[in-house]
Give the backbone structure.
Amino acid sequence: GCSVISEMTAFKKCEFSFRSLQDPVICGIDIGEKSSFAEFSFREGQEITMQLLQGTFPFEITANVEVRNPGTSTAAVNSIEWQAFIDDLEVAAGVVDQRVEVAPSGGLAIVPLKIHADLINYLEGENPQAMMNFAMNLLGAGDQPARMRMKSRPSVLIAGQNIAYPGFFTITQEFSSGTN
């Protein structure tokens, strides 16, 4: 019990930041190498149009969150509940259900968070090009910045019960052309 509380207390002192975004997919299309709407093939354009006509615009990406431990003891948690926000609108939530340990004295851990969102809910009423531009901004290839914020709340297992940290950690970054 004491070691779990010590690990959780050490986790409170950790620093969180976005390390990278990877594997961006829109409507089942890998957009990692694309930098504009014009780079989509005719078939890809048809797929996007079909999804929009069905009332969806699925977007997936992995946000790699870096956890740095400046403290003098190992920081650890058993799971992390998270929420992802784009321009202050919650677009996805989930749980990393695995133990995360971060060594002391500057140790690092990378926690991959798989984000799945339907951007149609976020950009309701906008045209397809505006939705695509929004997604491209997240990758640093668009012409307007997009702000991404994540909140996370770690939990530890004490006496067989999952006990959540009382508050959330917040990570914020603006993604714009040339930055990701």
Helices lie at 2-12, 42-53, 119-122, 128-138. The chain has a mean pLDDT of 82. The first helix runs from residue 2 to 12. The radius of gyration is 18 Å.
